[in-house]
Amino acid sequence: MAKIKNKKKNLAEHINSKKKSANVKTLNPFEVHINKEKMRVLGKKLKNDRGLPGVSRAKAIKKRKNTLLQEFKLQNKSNKFLDKRIGERNAGLTEEDRAMARFTAVRAKAHKRKSIFNLADDEVLTHRGQTLNEIEKFDDPRSDDEDSLDGEVNSGKLDSNFVEDAHFGGGVLSKTGIEGAKSHKDLINQLIAESKRRKAEKQKTKEKTLELTEKLDSDWKDLIPIVNKSVRQPNESSKIEVDDYDKVMRELKFEARGHPSDRLKTEDEIAKEEKEKLENLEKERLDRMRGFVEDKKSTSVKHRSADDLDDDFAYDSDTDVMLSYNDQGESNIVLTGDKINDENEDDHQNESADEEESDEEIETASEDDLSDLKEESSDSEVEDEKPNKQDKEEKEVSQLESSKTQKTDLHKRCLERIDDKVKDSKKQKTEDSSHNGTTEDIKADLLKRKEMMEKARKELPYTFSLPQTYEEVQNVFKDQSPEHQSVIIERMIKCNHPSLGENNKEKLGMLFVYLLQYINDIASDNDIKNCFKILSCIIPQLFDLSQLNQENAHKSIVEVIKEKHLEYRRNKKVYPTLEVVLFLKIVSCLFTTSDFRHQIVTPCIVFIDQMLYKCKPKTEKDIAYGLFLVTLILEYTSLSKRYLPAAVSFLAGILHMTIPKSGVRLIKVLPPFRSTSSALVLYKNCSSVCMSLKLEISDLTEIEISEDFKIRALYTTLKLLQEFKLIFSDYSSRCEIFENVTHYLEQIPVSNYPIEVQNEMKKLSDSLEKTKQERKLDYIVMEAKKPKALRLYEPNIQKVFDTKKHKVTSREKAERDKLLHKLKRERKGALREIRRDKEFLGRIRIKQKIQSDMERKEKVKQIFSEASIQQSELNSLDRKKKRKK
Q1: Which residue ranges does the record annotate as region Disordered (predicted)?
Q2: Beta strand residue intervals within 439-565, DSSP E
Q3: Which pLDDT belongs to residue 724?
């Protein structure tokens, strides 16, 4: 039994194995192609030692049928519709992804090169064919259907009766049989009159309807609170508090925005406009100085054309004068040159003789007031009318500045003449009482004009020419306040901008040099308050000049600093004069101080460092000078956070001078301070004194040290130390920097100083102590060595002998030869594929030709068969006819 089971089992496995082997495709040995070799080399691998040319050929033909054959069928055909929309050929995209891709492409196409700098949104949003701007007009358009509601009765169209009579009833040639029948012209006139009447009635009805509609709307607004209870009454509704965020949001929402069409003006255009503005203002000032006043009413009158329709007309008796004519045909508006004067303001020629005489007297009184002065100032007016604008400006400005004495004489004569006219008017008042009102008006007018001329004479000129020498600068600034000096320099820069002339840039550079010399001179006059005031006013103009010609500004400042440094080196232990401090302050305002190295700022820092280390502070002036230099160092290093030891050392020396010294124990201090110096010790109790704790300008000139200065010097020192502590807060050596300061603070007697000084001192000492406690020192540790890498052996590569001879070439040439060989192989493969494509297309064309020939032969056979059938039928008919005959 067991043997039988085993036999059955083996039989099932044999059947299954046969089925599996039947499914596996076996290769036909006749299809396998083996490449023969002339010489067999052991270990050599051949890429194409055997292959299946039939299978590969079938694959190639199948591939060409799917690609080349499809293109061949569509050759020279253009009647195929292709969906080229974005995303349609990509089956993996959903509808939303396709819509997003199309929207992105449209936005990218709209964002062209011309709209790169367009800040506004050019996308126009529409709704039902209308833009949002058109929709939001909030107008009340009436329907056009209202015109056709009344039918033909009120419409302005032709009547049916008229159409029947005029068009289809014969017109003029029709015989009505009625005497006095109307002609065609009368009918047309009647039609026009009737049409106008109907239109007027229709317009009246429409206006009445609109009025009632508006009244109904206004009544409905009053009824809304009664109908709708949810609407709050104004009295009952509490005001909703608006949040600050909502306020800012609304302000930003309604803020004015720029448009792409608003082109920004260039620097040259702005300079040109500023110059023209100043020239116009100067011209007006000169006119006011001469007593000429332009009548605003006459200049505002505009001539009205006979064809003017007076759109948006609003009558104003003060400003508008209607054009009219008198009996003689003369207009009431008289044109004199470029100005239009009203006839009502001039002399009336058509009045009586008495009135003419009085008017002539008034006119002579008003016209003779400045007639001689006009002749005296004719030269300046001739220069104003020259065509060349720049020559005009230069001559006018030079005349303004060079002939001040002549102008003062001119104004004096003008005022004297006005006074004479006033006296003449008084005499005329006593002689003729009938002209009381007119003489008083003339007097008031002349006094007003005199006041105006005085005011114009005191005003600063609006245009200035650049000075050629330093003496001209002094003359211009003479007896001028610091504010006026600043305005003069500003107007000089605007009137002589580098873009308005070729040599203006060099002239402005010279003006910068003259201003530095001017500051040096006023600083040497010992008027320190005025000096600092002038400096604060002209610093903005100095900055503008340095930006217009930077190279000149750099050279000028460097030369000044060199000169002052040479003067300082003659006596290194004495502080230099005050102009040095001013120039160092100018440097901090004009140039950047945060650079690592600057050709002007860096030498200035070295100069300040030398003064703080070498100069000995003995008097009040020296201590104030040193504190000023430390303030400049703080200003120079606030951004770069650079450490200058001389500044902290000087402040520590000031603290040392406030400590009382005893003969037994001396407190060490760094030079230039002496260990025995106690010039700032406060012996008087000033704890309850209220005073200003800031240093004053007068401290730079005082020699003897006062009690108030001791308090102010200590307070300023403490403030500066706090600022330096904030700057050096990131330094790892901050505790060592302020070590001497902490030591000196502990020994200063605090009880004599005011409470504010005591608080500042305690605040500084506590902060220094806190930084010392919070600092963590890291122990010095040797640098960890990198782990040593394991020793690696290079592989022993042995060259395999090859029968081929290889030339010894460079690496570049070998790579090039390799690429050329690869290119040759690819070219051969491409030519082989092109040749096979041609063969494939040739076979296709032959098949098509054979098929078309077969179809043609079948058609010919069919035609011949049909022709033979017709011929047989024809022959049978012919035979029948012969039989009948």
Answers
A1: 1-24, 135-156, 259-440
A2: none
A3: 92
Predicted model pTM: 0.48
Pairing between strand 130-131 and 126-127? antiparallel
- Residue 180, helix vs strand vs coil: coil
Instruction: Report pLDDT for 819.
Output: 95
- Phi, psi angles (nearest 5°) of residue 325: -130, 145
**Residue 482 and residue 533 in contact, taking contact as beta carbons nearer than 8 Å:** yes
Are 711 and 693 in contact by the 8 Å Cβ rule? The answer is yes
Structure tokens at 341: 């004067």
Distance between CA atoms of residues 622 and 480, nearest Å? 32
Tokens 């203002």, residue located: 281
Burial class of residue 343, CB neighbours in 10 A (0-12, 13-18, 19+): middle
- Amino acid 506 reads E
How much is the CA Rg of the chain, to the nearest whole Å? 54
- Name the burial class of residue 786, with classes exposed (0-12), middle (13-18) and buried (19+) by CB atoms within 10 angstroms of its CB: exposed
Which amino acid type is present at position 528? Answer: I
In this prediction, residue 401 carries a pLDDT of 47
φ/ψ of residue 335, rounded to 5: -95, 115
The distance of Cα 551 from the centroid of its chain, to the nearest Å, equals 28
Token pair for 395 = 């001559």
| In 691-810, alpha helices (H) | 707-727, 734-737, 739-745, 755-774
193-200: long-range contacts (C-beta < 8 A, 24 or more apart)? 194/159, 195/156, 198/154, 198/155, 198/156, 199/156
CB of 575 closer than 8 Å to CB of 568: no
Residue with tokens 């030692």: 49
Q: Which helix (H) or strand (E) holds 334?
A: strand 333-336
- Cα–Cα distance measured from residue 557 to residue 92, given in angstroms and rounded to the nearest whole number: 71
The contacts of residue 124 (CB under 8 Å, 6+ apart) are 131
Segment-wise mean pLDDT, segments of 10 residues, the chain, 885 residues = 46 56 66 78 73 86 93 82 83 88 83 61 66 62 51 55 60 50 77 87 91 86 69 52 82 75 77 81 74 51 50 46 55 45 41 41 38 36 39 44 45 54 53 57 75 73 84 86 86 85 85 90 80 88 88 91 92 89 91 88 92 90 92 91 91 90 77 85 81 84 87 91 90 88 88 88 91 83 85 77 74 93 96 95 95 96 95 92 80
* pLDDT for res 44: 76
Q: What angle do CA 79, 85, 89 make, to 5 degrees?
A: 85
743: left (phi over 0), alpha (psi -120 to 50) or beta: alpha
Please identify which residue in the block is written with the tokens 């006018």: 396
Bin 578: left if φ > 0, else alpha if -120 < ψ < 50, else beta.
alpha
Whether the CB-CB separation of 588 and 605 falls below 8 Å is answered with no
Cβ neighbours, 10 Å, residue 366: 15
∠ CA 168-174-177, nearest 5°, is 130
Q: What integer pLDDT is reported at residue 566 of this predicted model?
A: 93
Name the DSSP letter for residue 595: S
Both tokens assigned to 38:
């002339």
Q: Which amino acid is at 740?
A: N
Query: CA-to-CA distance for 573 and 544, rounded, in angstroms?
Result: 37
Domain residue ranges of the chain, discontinuous segments joined by +: 268-293+331-463, 466-606, 616-775
Q: What's the pLDDT score for residue 181?
A: 58
Task: Determine what percent of the chain falls in helix, strand and coil, rounding each to the nearest 5.
Answer: 60, 0, 35
